[in-house]
Every structure is written in structure tokens, then in C-alpha cells.
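Run log, item B.
One chain of 216 residues. Sequence copied directly from the ordering sheet:
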Amino acid sequence: MVRNGDMTPTHSNADSLDDGRLSAPAAVRNAPAIVAALAGWLPDRGRVLEIAAGTGEHAVALARANPDLVWQPTDIDPARLASIDAWRAAEGVKNMRVATMLDATAPDWQVEPFDVIYLANLMHLVSEAAAANVIRGAARALAPGGRFCIYGPFRTGGAFRSDGDASFHARLTASDPSIGYKDLEWIEAVGAEAGLARAAMIEMPANNLIAIFDRP
């Protein structure tokens, strides 16, 4: 069962297509690199929960590249949920399920166990409290031996990885002081408290990272 909270993270910009699909330029650019980076880290079979799937472009790309994984996308925005399903229909991805409403920033969210949880470009768009709820909830939702994959921009050791990252963070905090880049060390600490162990850190284009955590 999915429980929906009342915290609404900011979404990235997206263009509307004629058939209900939304397209985010950043998602188009980074999806191939994410598919390649995760190729050795996703199981051959199992169930994947995608948190904050946005337009649905990552879901389509990853589900198509992993046809024996059942891919369950979620989001909190009705327009994004409609876009995810429109992408699923347009691309005919058979192992991708109908999008489901889920607010993973709520403190008590619950789902049935999944083998993998995937999250992209959310942590910097929500508050620290909301990000902690996402991590703790993911730890609860993973089956034993499961894996949590987080893609996005982060700070390391309190420092930004580029001038562009520092500028983006400043724009975010100017619009909402509670949001902005999170330190990887903080992400790891919250995950460790919830029972997650870091398995890998993958360098990605545009100074992004994929942090991979395992549930023993």
C-alpha cells in the first residue's frame, strides 16, 4: 500500500508534447549515461521502484534496457504520472508498470518490498528532513540484499564539485532556503543509520554522481 504525504518537492522544467508526454532536456541528455553506468549494478531479475520518476524518460530507458526487471515508476504530480504512462504507451515498454502516486518525502511511507529502488535528481530539490525521509523509507522498502541507487548532483566534504554546481545551489536556496545540495557524507550517515551500506560511487557526466547503497 502506498501512503501519500503532503510535502511537494519542486520538479525540473519539462516541455509538453502533443500526446501528453513531457520531455525534460536534462533527462534526454543523461539517460543513456545512467543506463550504461547501472548496467553492472542492477540484478538480472526482480522488481524496481522508481521514486519521483518525473517525465518518465528515465523509466522508459532503464526498463527497456533491463527487460527482465519489472519497473514500477511513481511520482506525486498528476501531470507527471500522466506523462510517465504516455511514455510507456508510446514506447511500448512491456515490463514497465502503470505509474503510481507516492510521496517518498512523507515520514511514514510504506510499500511492499522491492529488489531495487532508483531515484534521480530529487535530493537537491527537497529539504534535509524530506531527503532523510526518502532514505529511511527506501531502507524500509528494500528486500534483504536489495539495492538503492541515487543519481544527481551532490557536495563532497562540504565543497561543490564545480562553479556551476555552486551557482545552481545558490539559485535553489534563493527560491527556498530549505532546499539545495546535500553532502554525500550526510547521505551516507543517514543511510547507515537506516541499515544501508555504501557499495559504490560512480562518476557521471556534468559532475553528477550515482551513489549505490546495499541493504545487507
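Observations after the first pass:
- The chain has one domain: 17-214.
- Residues 25-38 form the longest helix (14 residues).
Flagged for discussion on Thursday.
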